[in-house]
Specification:
The chain is of the alpha+beta class and about 475 residues long.
Length: about 475
């Protein structure tokens, strides 16, 4: 039997897009995972990146209950196609991606990132790095031969764990940054169920900090760095007050998106944190989606700023373009705080090699080192930034075609001002890079777009104060919900 990946998406309920394949764990059967993996590797063969001569395929996973089974299904697909599956164990997404980069082999991460534990996913990395939008399109067109007889028998045994990827990722930081660079710093590590929780302790204590583990959990907790749970806000404040930490660090489930707090236990927004990290590294080019905070431009720190559509493939493509254009310190980041580098950066006589995939350790480490360098607490670093505040919300169960109809209402400025002018004033500029992003003469921002991977309509706002942006968010959502009911 043969099946096209596009058809598998519809039949299985497991969708494939920017974040790889994702769906309910019950729908991610061994057969579905086998087919997706086979389609990915088959595409790499067709594109000339991979040959059937026993080459390796690196595989890792997060700490969800369904991850081990899916890793085994992925490994079986690689084995059945003539490749050698390398079991890198339970490590962060950037750690297995780094292993793939170093060994010029595909790297596959089984993770659902921040989504609930009843769901999971498979993230694919080519030998040369993250899959881009063109790769996604080509993978969907793959037609895969399926042999039903190989499913339903004894489970495929994962190979013995290879710890090289774990060691290499930890050494990326311990062998680049001075061993005493965090001496005197008190750092809390909120572990929860993040796959990189033990490695965070190893890295930050190895660089001289006094580290306190916090909030370990054997049950998976879906920590989302863009929508921080109220209980996590409360916990961070209480931990800081009780322990006098300089900062608290954490990550999402697969440890590619960071959480970092100031000394008061207030979590930083990811896009703001990344501006500070880029400042420490001395970046000269920053690529980031249009939805991220415009404090980036207002700092005046970065000669080359490139705004992209939302999604890491667009950020990676933009970084590649920046490097080709001659920029020497190229970084990228997303609103979730995931930080990417497309250049090598000098660090105290050593070299931090480029890693063009989301990473959670580098931005948090860079912010702490910037606070040491400037002799300021993290809250003061934030206070020095242009004061821009962002908020976001979404309308769920909203088909993409309905979202498109709403955006079509706003073909010109007069239509935008008719709907939003009483609340936000006159329009200064319009950006249609991804959906519709409107900057008003007040410098307040309204950005509307359909979600790229769910039937949702998303709304982002930006203003000069926290109170004002929250008010903008409420008003924007009220107007959009009225439009939804009228549609």
């Amino acid at each position: 039997m043969k099946i096209k990946i596009n058809d598998l998406m519809q039949e299985s309920g497991v969708k494939f897009g920017t974040s790889g394949a994702r769906g309910l764990a019950t729908e991610m059967t061994d057969k579905v995972c086998h087919i997706y993996t086979k389609g990915f590797l088959q595409y790499l063969e067709e594109s000339g990146e991979l040959k059937k001569n026993g080459e390796s395929v690196a595989i890792a996973g997060d700490l969800r209950p369904s991850t081990e089974r899916i890793m085994a299904a992925v490994a079986k697909a690689a084995f059945d196609m003539g490749y050698t599956p390398i079991n890198c164990g339970y490590i962060p997404s950037p750690a297995v991606a780094l292993y793939g980069q170093d060994h010029s082999c595909p790297a596959i991460m089984v993770t659902g990132s921040h989504i609930p534990s009843d769901r999971n996913g498979i993230k694919f990395n080519k030998c040369s790095g993250e899959i881009l939008k063109y790769d996604e399109e080509q993978i969907r067109e793959q037609v895969v031969e399926v042999d039903d007889s190989i499913f339903g028998g004894d489970a495929f045994e994962l190979p013995e764990e290879n710890i090289d990827a774990r060691i290499n990722y930890v050494n990326r930081f311990l062998k680049t940054f001075p061993s005493d660079c965090l001496q005197g710093k008190k750092i809390g590590i909120y572990q929860h169920s993040a796959v990189g929780r033990d490695m965070l302790i190893e890295i930050f204590s190895g660089l001289g900090a006094a580290v306190t583990p916090l909030g370990f959990s054997n049950t998976f907790i879906p920590v989302d760095t863009e929508a921080i749970r109220p209980e996590d806000v409360k916990l961070a404040r209480e931990w800081s007050e009780e322990n006098g930490f300089d900062t608290i660090l954490s990550t999402d489930g697969d440890s590619d998106r960071p959480l970092i707090s100031d000394e008061n236990g207030e979590w930083l927004r990811g896009d703001v944190a990344c501006i500070l990290a880029a400042k420490y590294l001395g970046a000269d080019s920053a690529s980031t989606p249009v939805s991220c905070n415009t404090a980036l431009e207002k700092t005046g720190w970065f000669p080359d700023i490139r705004r992209t559509k939302i999604g890491s493939p667009f950020v990676v493509a933009s970084m590649i373009e920046a490097s080709f254009a001659g920029c020497k310190g190229v970084i990228g980041y997303e609103a979730n705080g995931g930080f990417l580098t497309n250049s090598d950066f000098p660090i105290a006589g050593e070299t931090l090699r480029a890693l063009p995939t989301r990473d959670a350790v580098l931005p948090t480490l860079a912010i702490i080192l910037l606070s040491i360098q400037q002799c300021k607490p993290i809250s003061a670093l934030l206070a020095d930034l242009p004061q821009r505040f962002t908020a976001s919300d979404r309308i769920q169960d909203f088909p993409t075609e309905e979202s498109v109809k709403i955006l079509k209402r706003f073909e010109d400025r007069s239509a935008i001002e008719e709907a939003f002018g009483n609340a936000f004033g006159k329009v200064e500029s319009i950006d249609r890079t991804d959906g519709l992003r409107v900057t008003f003469e007040s410098q307040e921002v309204l950005h509307m777009r359909p979600s790229g991977n769910a039937p949702e309509f998303r709304c982002y706002n930006e203003a000069g104060s926290e109170a004002r942006v929250q008010k903008m968010q409420r008003i924007s959502m009220e107007i959009l919900l009225r439009m939804k009911s009228d549609a």
